[in-house]
Amino acid sequence: MFLDGWQFHNPRPSSDFPSNNFPSASDRQASGKGLLPRQLGSTDIILAVAILTLAVSGGHYKADCLKWRDKLIRLVRASGLTMEDQDIDLGPVFCGLYNGDSTFKRWFIAKEERRRLFWLVYCLDRHLALSFNMNLNLSEGTFCVRTPLPESLWQTLHSADLNCLPSCPLGPPTQVSGTGFFEYFLPLARVLGHIIDLHHTRNHPTLGEFVSQDAVRRLESMVSQCEQDLTELELRPGLFPGESSAKLALVKAYSTYLLHVFYILLHGKWDPISMIEDNDDWITSESFLTCASHALTATGVVSQILALDPEMAFMPYLFGIYLLQGSFILLLFVDRMPELGPNRSVEEVCETIIRAHEVSVVTLDTTFQVILNSLKGLLNTNKSSTEKLPKGIPLYVV
Length: 398
Fold this sequence. Notes:
single chain, mainly alpha, 15 helices, globular, transcription regulation, DNA binding
């Protein structure tokens, strides 16, 4: 899934560009300034480091992925990927000049590949920022890259008429438009990045008190728009003809769950210990009610995911952190059951999440079982005991 639709093209020397030479801004930045050898700026090398970063993040020594992430970000910046479209206008007139030129088409495809590579790293940056509770490396406004082409066009780009290609705007897409990775996950990653920025601003010792509720409402509207996009996805023309209804159902289910987690991240606490201790009486707030509502609804979506994807193999390296964040509040539910009395609905919700954790554990590190075992223990004993929740639960469980 993660590399679905990826195509590889060897980087070409500058002599392979069209006769008038239209080298990208990134080529001039990297080679002209001598930032790094050409081979280190190739898409294959950067992609390999990205895959290694993701693979290490899912292993036992998760923190080791951070050094690979740092290397990856440096490569992306030094190779000029962040400024791929800084001063190149690939409009219809420009493309029409070279539409029949096979060399230009190869250059055009390679350029689109570099864009997709940047957006892959962009998504990975946000995933790791959430997993390790860290700031973003590729913040909005620090890059100049166009939105990837639709998946259906990317798959047929070798034979496509360049005059008929849509004009892609700068920046990440704002609309969920299909079942390709960049069509559904990239718009969600954009929203997630804004939520992460807001979270760290809230916790800033000086600026946190000045965060306005308008910012929260703005992000809520973004999440709501993504929900509407998913609802309309089946009716939207232009989906890749070969896509199955099963793939569409998977994309909608997983994306819907992620959006519920976004609401929880917006209104909830990211630390389960402080949430359980509740020193600030958070459970009496409207934010708690919002989190509780979305946590319960998200659990229903997990049931759908288990029915569609029993092994939860669609997002093996990405889904764990969202499942974790959506589960934290359930610890609070079970912890308070002795005070409020038995609740079969809460027990069923917890059992669903436990099943999902048990399925996911084959692709997740054993530290992920901390939440699973805590939830099981609290549910089985049905008594309040925050001591049963291990201190120091890591937030970097992916």
